[in-house]
Please model this.
Amino acid sequence: MGFFSAEEVERLSAKEIRMAPLVKMEFEGDTAYCWNGYTPITTGGNDWLPMYGAAAISGLGFSSGTASENVTVSLSGLPDDALPFLAQALSTTNSISQRMLTVYLQFFDSNWQPEGPPIGFSYGFMQPPTITRNAATETEGASQSISITAENALFFRSKPKNGRYTDQDQK
Model:
């Protein structure tokens, strides 16, 4: 069985392909569903909030090795333009660590309406967010950005069960 179904392979073989990543962040007590479009969409039984083109996802790809890789989701904007997930990430900074982040691929039709269910593409365990704030200068206005990195499942493979390796562990 391949990564994509026969129907998805057919969509990928088309002359024109419309797809976008969707991000699901499982915060403590709530789950945020977002995508980098300009309108809310409903797919896979969930409502996905738009990030209005202000988001970026880095680190996506297929790896054939066993190295721990990560995915970083970033959102940049003015302080007053924070999306609900930004405020939620900031308010739960202490409890965000090791919560699940999943990236999906969503196919769209020619009218940018979701076509088929989202395809789980990557998942990882969120690390505390990194927040960057820049004051206004003569040439630029004030801005802020938040980045949340998610380490994949191999991240903890070399971590000892009780916090450190002893001489007995290494025999």
Summary: The mean pLDDT is 79.
